[in-house]
Amino acid sequence: MRRILIVDDHPIFAEAFAIMATRAGVDCMVDAVNTLAEAEQRILSSRAYSFVFLDFLLPEANGFSALIHLKKLRPDIPVAIISAREDAHTVSMAHAF
Fold first, then answer.
1. How many whole angstroms separate alpha carbon 2 and alpha carbon 21?
2. pTM across the whole model
């Protein structure tokens, strides 16, 4: 069974992503946290995560700093950025990671 981590400072969005992930037909367990510090703690305490959904703008991280931080901790875990931003620069930078 896959385990997914959702990192979003808006609990309603985190819950909505968790519901979508479990209803997508993929056999998975979903954990949701609201801060980068909580995400770091979860990732370091468990080797079980196979995917992370990461909010692009967290209160304690600006833009790509959270992505860079999580990838340094566990470069083997794929990370998808959740964002309402769709400008070409942001999208191309996200693909670069």
1. 11
2. 0.85
